[in-house]
Design a protein that fits this description.
Helix content: 25-40%
Order of helices and strands: HEEEEEEEEEEE
Largest sheet: 5 strands, antiparallel
Number of strands: 11
Shape: rod-shaped
Distance between the termini: 111 Å
Strand content: 25-35%
Oligomer: single chain
Number of helices: 1
Length: about 160
């Protein structure tokens, strides 16, 4: 009987060690899975930010008006925008915001035209577009700020 009790003690020790070993493997697996998910999430975030930054660096434009002589057409001021970047961007009242003297010009007072292709609402690299701003301004100096879809903005101080 002593022999069988010793064998039972030895078997219960092996079983408890086996249970602890399996539990430690499960815990290690859960931790490894959690670390994988967190690492993958960080990696995806870096990829998205990198793509956005690369696009922002390729998108550029300039307001090419003569600041002392802003043309008017049918009572609206005409501002010319040239895409000086390497990518195209939307050029319409839904994606371009215009401020004059810090005040938002309502989209209903803006008319956008791609001068290279009047049927397109995209401004391709090296294309020039016009923005007709239907507003009344007092004589003197004013500032127009144009903001495109990715947040890039350009300003021009002009005289009326």
């Amino acid at each position: 009987m002593v022999l069988s009790l010793g064998g039972l003690r030895m078997a219960s020790g092996v079983i408890s060690e086996l249970v602890l070993f399996i539990a430690s493997l499960l815990i290690a697996g859960v931790i490894a899975g959690g670390l994988y998910v967190v690492t993958q999430d960080i990696s995806d975030g870096i990829n998205v930010k990198g793509e956005h930054l690369a696009y922002s660096l390729k998108l550029d434009f300039a307001i090419i008006n003569d600041a002392e002589n802003i043309p008017t057409e049918s009572g609206a001021y005409v501002f010319y925008v040239k895409n000086t970047g390497k990518v195209s961007f939307m050029f319409d009242e839904n994606t371009v915001v215009v401020f004059i003297d810090g005040n938002l010009v309502p989209p209903s007072n803006l008319t956008f035209t791609n001068l290279n292709d009047s049927s397109s609402s995209m401004l391709y690299p090296y294309d020039i577009g016009s923005i007709h701003v239907d507003t009344s301004l007092s004589s003197g100096y004013h500032k127009i700020t144009i903001v495109v879809e990715n947040g890039e903005k350009r300003s021009l101080v002009f005289k009326v």
